[in-house]
Design a protein that fits this description.
Elements (H helix, E strand, L loop, with lengths): L2 H31 L1 H12 L3 H5 L2 H10 L1 H19 L3 H22 L12 E3 L6 H14 L2 H10 L6 H21 L5 E3 H17 L24
Parallel strand pairs: 1-2
Length: 234
């Protein structure tokens, strides 16, 4: 019996519980700080009205927070279904997949919200780096950093091929470029700016660095798993 392994397991489990508790506490604290604006959208969201809920920042954030228990349930179901096939990595894979979707879709929804002049005003493009950065303000910069932060945080945990900061940086830049192009083509009354791409990509890379200790090693990738040796010809 390996006593060292059995002694190392409880500290790891305890550390995971502590980190999860801190994450929940941090999100609860953030929700408490912004409870006033969120509650302004609550009546509209509870009534299922599009205007005032799904077309406002407060409403989208409120819906994202309220659906967190549902996201946790999906993680649990996926992990249970994969437990036999994936073994210890089932929870990490399931959490990464749900985290990428739940943490990225709301921000994409916000970035694709049409402005007041959508469809009527001409398309606007800003291709000079750092020119728009000074006009974003602290909230604008933080918001742009968070757009693909969940993608950058969870993608290396899900896919070993993305377990690299340069690759996550390229992934964030590529996804952001698609968003900016869609804003331009759909004429959403938004400025398609190269600075948005730079800040979005930087946010993905920083989030990837924060999750580096949980990245999926190449040995865990399905393509790298040891295959059974063929039976000798009889």
């Amino acid at each position: 019996m390996n006593h060292n392994a059995s002694l190392a397991a409880p500290p790891r489990r305890t550390r995971g519980i502590v980190l999860l508790s801190l994450a929940v506490l941090g999100m609860a604290s953030a929700a408490f700080v912004v409870r006033g604006p969120l509650m302004m959208a609550a009546p509209m969201c509870m009534a299922g009205r599009w205007h005032g809920c799904f077309d406002t920042f407060n409403g989208v954030v409120l819906v994202t927070l309220v659906t967190l228990p549902l996201a946790a349930l999906v993680v649990w179901v996926l992990a249970r279904c994969r437990r036999t096939a994936d073994g210890p990595s089932a929870w990490r894979t399931s959490l990464a997949e749900v985290g990428m979707v739940h943490g990225t879709v709301p921000f994409l929804w916000l970035t694709m919200m049409p402005g007041a002049g959508a469809g009527t005003v001409p398309e606007r493009v800003s291709l000079i780096p750092l020119r728009d950065l000074v006009t974003m303000g602290p909230l604008g910069i933080v918001g742009n950093l968070l757009v693909f932060a969940s993608l950058g945080f969870f993608a290396p945990m899900r896919c070993a091929a993305l377990a690299s900061v340069p690759r996550i940086l390229a992934l964030g830049a590529g996804c952001s470029t698609l968003v900016e192009t869609a804003q331009y083509v759909l004429r959403l009354d938004r400025v398609s700016s190269v600075d948005d791409v730079l800040v979005n990509a930087a946010g993905a890379a920083l989030a990837a660095l924060a999750s580096r200790r949980w990245w999926r090693p190449a040995a865990d990738a399905p393509s790298d798993r040891a295959r059974p040796a063929p039976a000798p010809a009889g």
